[in-house]
Specification:
7-stranded mixed sheet, 4-stranded antiparallel sheet, 14 strands, single chain
Length: 406
């Protein structure tokens, strides 16, 4: 089987898989012509914040430099005490974990469901202690986690829920948009996300106190607009530039269509692959949930497919289809920064403050995590796909599946 003449899969790392166009160029031209590239004096970042808050139905939204910055602003807004614990997922970007450590808190990992690869209320509850300050719930691949049940656990203990929505723009759980259920929502505008400014992030909240803390944290804790401003506490410059803000303002009206296209075509691919034994297809975790398909994660059972996801990925590469077996090569707690506690010089701080149980990464505590990583094959996905691209992807997977079938 060979790629039909002229057909290649759109790639979100270049123009073929992105919706960047004349609208973004016009907005950028306006910024350049104004000569004002800083968001403290410009209008585009402020406009983005207003429009994103309106889209999400929240009181506050603030733009920042990256998705990592968004998580950092959220954690810093809680002002954790050194040694406080923040529960998170071992299957996530390290940029969603290191902010915990920078703020002197301990990342405590909850196991994940082996199919959705999200943390669950059950696994979060097992990870909780009387030192739990917050829970970061990552909605992986755009599939909502059990956010309502997890929030109920947090509320009962007085902990705060932060939603990592980097991959889940406009996803819904039980009628609520992700990013509005927890106290804070964190979004990423990195190159491969649903909409992009290359790098960039947004935080949302309905809490005035947390909003104030996040606004200050983005701005070195300088009280812009205050009668007698000062640098009130330790903070960074995490501001977004007007250039990024202009691109984001132009991208935002495209978000809804982007999401609908991803959902529609994911359903098309799932129908095409539904008869292949040993493949578990992605779907919303709950009946009232809306999966927005940042990527298309395919669970491959090596009892049916020789060498499992690695074998299928290798075979698809022959057809110029790039896919990612395992998604990440190892759980976050096996990365050197956490495994060897490589933090501030040789201090190992804040891990020196941790309970032994909080930093126990024994494999038997993470059976879902290891099972998930051993079986998942992440297929490329973006809103520039057309039916013909999905048909080619389905035909390619089916053909290689038949060759590898056991």
């Amino acid at each position: 089987m060979s790629t039909p003449a002229g057909l290649s899969l759109p790639n979100d790392q270049d123009a073929s898989g992105r919706t960047l166009g004349k609208e973004e160029l016009a907005a950028l031209s306006e910024v350049i012509s104004s000569g004002t590239l800083t968001s403290t004096k410009g209008q585009f970042v402020k406009r983005l914040e207003r429009e994103f808050a309106e889209l999400m139905g929240v009181r506050h939204a603030f733009a920042c430099a990256s998705g990592t910055a968004a998580i950092h602003c959220a954690v810093a807004a809680l002002d954790p005490e050194p040694g406080d614990e923040i529960i998170t997922s071992p299957i996530t970007d390290m940029g969603a974990i290191t902010p915990i450590i920078y703020e002197g808190a301990i990342p405590v990992f909850a196991d994940v469901d082996p199919i959705s690869m999200n943390v669950t209320a059950e696994t979060v509850e097992r990870a909780m202690s009387n030192r739990t300050r917050a829970i970061i719930v990552t909605h992986l691949f755009g599939n909502p986690a059990e956010i309502d049940k997890i929030k109920a656990l947090a509320d009962a203990q007085g902990a705060v829920v932060i939603e990592d929505c980097a991959q889940s723009f406009l996803a819904v759980h039980d009628g609520a948009k992700l990013g509005t259920v927890g106290a804070i929502g964190c979004f990423s505008l990195q190159q491969g996300k649903h909409i992009t400014t290359g790098e960039g992030g947004i935080v949302t909240t309905n809490c005035d106190h947390l909003a104030r803390r996040m606004f200050l944290y983005i701005n070195k804790a300088w009280g812009y607009g205050d009668p007698k401003p000062d640098h009130y506490f330790l903070a960074l410059n995490y501001r977004m530039t007007e250039l990024q803000g202009a691109v984001a303002v132009a991208q935002l009206p495209k978000l809804s269509d982007c999401v609908e296209t991803r959902i529609e075509l994911a359903a098309h691919l799932s129908r095409a692959l539904s008869e292949l034994p040993g493949l578990t297809l992605p779907k919303p975790s709950g009946n009232s949930s809306r999966h927005v398909y940042w990527k298309y994660p395919l669970i491959v059972d090596e009892r049916h497919v020789k060498d499992g996801p690695v074998g299928l990925a290798t075979a698809l590469r022959e057809l110029n289809i790039a896919s990612a077996p395992r998604y990440i090569q190892k759980p976050a707690f096996q990365c050197a920064v956490i495994r060897d506690q490589r933090t501030f010089g040789r201090s190992r701080w804040p891990f020196t403050l941790a309970r032994p149980e909080a930093i126990d990464y024994s494999p038997e505590k993470f059976t879902g995590t290891f099972e998930a990583l051993s079986r998942v094959l992440v297929l490329p996905w973006n809103e520039r796909y057309e039916t013909r691209h999905v048909d080619y992807l389905a035909e390619s997977i089916t053909a290689k599946y038949q060759l590898l079938k056991q």
